[in-house]
Write a structure and sequence with these properties.
Layout: E1 21-22, H1 30-37, H2 40-45, H3 51-64, H4 69-93, H5 97-104, H6 107-140, H7 144-151, H8 154-162, H9 166-191, H10 195-201, H11 207-210, H12 212-225, H13 228-237, E2 241-242, H14 247-282, H15 294-305, H16 308-341, H17 347-368, H18 370-400, H19 403-406, H20 413-439
Parallel strand pairs: 1-2
Protein name: Divalent metal cation transporter MntH
Keywords: Cell membrane, Ion transport, Membrane, Symport, Transmembrane, Transmembrane helix, Transport
Function: H(+)-stimulated, divalent metal cation uptake system.
Length: 440
């Protein structure tokens, strides 16, 4: 579908796995169709529960109890809408978001967007490296510097499974997600939260906006939840399904891709909410209002809850989260480079470049500054992601709202209003977050 674009479509996104998964015909049952499309949503949802989210959720729960649960919920609702648009763009146009930017914008603007996106992916990779290193340190006593070095070896694991087929990667991600879910289900049970206060926290309250400290943490939660690279990732991996290139075939694909991502993002919501609830029930309830560091949370869980397994499972979930995010970060890096530059590198070269950009600063900080330095670097990575977010969201909404590009699949007026409103809120809140960070 080349109408409305400056340049014709040149190549398939992730060509080695493009349309590699068969989809049943229109007469198949609902559940058979759903199982065929199930998978990309969980891979996207992983980015919404990576180690970068943990610090903001811990800070929100320990300082303000259950109040900021509504922010986690609203952030996930924003994400559901944006991921629906990303899936629709990929299915309808046959372009991932990076390819769409290249085919729509001039060369200089496209290159600028590519550079910003590469910085964001490096920042996300940085969060995964630090999160995994912290988990290895907490669970096995491995020095942070050695943990950082060890995480670079996962490039070999990713490459091995990439060669086994896309369904294998989806299955690994699903398995790790179930592990994280199980760990936090246990944590919630043993922390015995105040269910009435928890339900009240899901309702947005004016004091979130009027209290400066609370607003700052709330914006941090939003910035850490909606990940820019996920929009590029989702617009690509939905194209691994071999759908009929007809209006009916595309409508079916959009329907099931949206169900897939929405259900998966509810899982991500549970995990993010569980971290905040755990912090509220365990730390805020006992007067520990300044627990924002992952290391502090790990050390305090067992003494406060009186459950030895609580700390261990917290560390296991953190390690699984970091490794899960690594898998999807690998693909996002490949999609962005190939999409913006129309350039293919060997996967191990692309992954090694991205990994080194993240590992070198993490290693230097771990050696020189230790635990406190890595924690600050983790927060800094989330600020960088916040800066990039608008540069991914605005093009996505622009493209999917264009009838020339989307034809009959163009966003309906109500979706268009919602999408632009979400874009404006994200832009305004992230601008405020960056200003506060600079001033602070």
């Amino acid at each position: 579908m080349d109408a409305g674009w400056r340049h014709p479509r040149r190549a398939n996104s992730l060509s080695e796995v493009y349309a590699s998964i068969k989809v049943p015909g229109a007469d198949a049952s609902f559940w058979r169709k759903l199982m065929a499309f199930w998978g990309p949503g969980l891979m996207v949802a992983v980015g919404y529960m990576d180690p970068g989210n943990w610090a903001t959720d811990l800070a929100g729960g320990s300082r303000y109890g259950y109040t900021l649960l509504s922010v986690v919920l609203v952030s996930n609702l924003f994400a559901m809408l944006l991921q629906h648009l990303a899936a629709k763009l990929g299915i309808v146009t046959g372009r991932d978001l990076a390819q769409a930017c290249r085919d729509h914008y001039s060369r200089p603007i496209s290159l600028m967007l590519w550079i910003l996106c590469e910085i964001a992916i490096a920042a996300c990779d940085l969060a995964e490296v630090i999160g995994s290193a912290i988990a290895l340190n907490l669970l096995f006593g491995l020095p942070l510097a050695w943990g950082v070095v060890l995480t670079t070896l996962d490039v070999l694991v990713v490459l091995f499974f990439q060669n086994k087929g896309f369904r294998i990667i989806e299955s690994i991600v699903a398995g790790l997600t179930v592990l994280i879910f199980g760990c936090f289900l246990y944590e919630i049970i043993v922390s015995r939260p105040d269910w009435v206060a928890l339900a009240h926290g899901l309702v947005p309250q004016p004091k979130v906006i009027t209290t400066p400290g609370m607003l700052y943490v709330a914006i941090g939660i939003l910035g850490a939840t909606v990940m820019p690279h996920n929009l590029y990732l989702h617009s690509s991996i939905v194209q691994t399904r071999a759908i009929e290139q007809t209006e009916a075939g595309k409508r079916m694909a959009i329907k099931f891709a949206t169900i897939d991502s929405t259900v998966a993002l509810f899982v991500a919501f549970f995990i993010n909410a569980a971290i905040l609830v755990l912090a509220a029930a365990t730390f805020h309830h006992h007067g520990l209002y300044e627990v924002a560091k992952i290391q502090d949370a790990y050390k305090l869980l067992a003494p406060v809850l009186g459950a030895g397994a609580a700390s261990v499972l917290f560390g296991v979930a953190l390690l699984a989260s970091g490794q899960n995010s690594t898998l999807t970060g690998t693909l996002a890096g490949q999609i962005v480079m190939e999409g913006f530059l129309d350039l293919k590198l060997r996967p191990w070269v692309r992954r090694l470049i991205t990994r080194l950009v993240a590992v070198v600063p993490a290693l230097v900080v771990a050696i020189v500054y230790g635990e406190s330095g890595t924690e600050k670097l983790l927060v800094f990575s989330q600020v960088i992601l916040s800066m990039q977010l608008s540069f991914a969201v605005v093009p996505l909404v622009l493209f999917t709202s264009s009838r020339a590009k989307m034809g009959v699949f163009v966003n309906r007026p109500v979706v268009r209003v919602l999408a632009w409103s979400v874009s404006a809120i994200i832009l305004a809140l992230n601008a405020y977050l960056l200003w506060q960070t600079a001033v602070g």
